[in-house]
Amino acid sequence: MYRLFYHPTDPRSAAADFIPFYENGVYHLFYLYDHRNNQKNGEGISWHKVTTKDFVHFEDHGIAVPKGNLNSLDPYVFTGSVYKRADNDYYLFYTGHSFHSHEDNQQSECILYAKSKDLKQWNKVVDHPIYAPQGYSRRDFRDPFVFFNEKDNNYWMLLCARSNSGPRIRCGETIVFISTDLENWQFSHSLIAT
Q1: Which residues on neighbouring strands pair with residue 189, listed in sequence order?
Q2: I want to staple 68 with a disulfide (CB 3.0 to 4.6 A). Which of 32, 74, 94, 164 is the partner?
């Protein structure tokens, strides 16, 4: 039996793409809050957060990462992941999206991050954007998932990307960026077998 366990209070809005992070008995559920009412709330999407210990009772914490303005890299703060570094700094990686960049044929998606000491207050870092590497679509580059690869002794970021070559509907790839510090990233390779 399906049961909707959480929904935003505005009946016109939608909660989408839940991004879970678990720590000390608490599930931190970040999600995209789509107001679906640009006249009232302005254009764009922010990350919000609820917490729960049992998936029956929830505490709403409101906006976690606010949307940027229409001239920024992230009027739409899209899906990503949360990672806790050994020094207790939290990193929240997300997809910055701008529909308006399509009009100028610029890169409409990039990867950005925010930092926190407590999972509550997040500070965006917008001067280190990650763009699609050469040979990949500037409009389909999203959904970062970050983890520490013990074998390689560095951080990996898995990303959904679309190659500029091959059939249009069958050119999606998972690609890998690597980092030693979670802040400076380099394209490494595609996970497609060659």
Answers
A1: 176
A2: 74
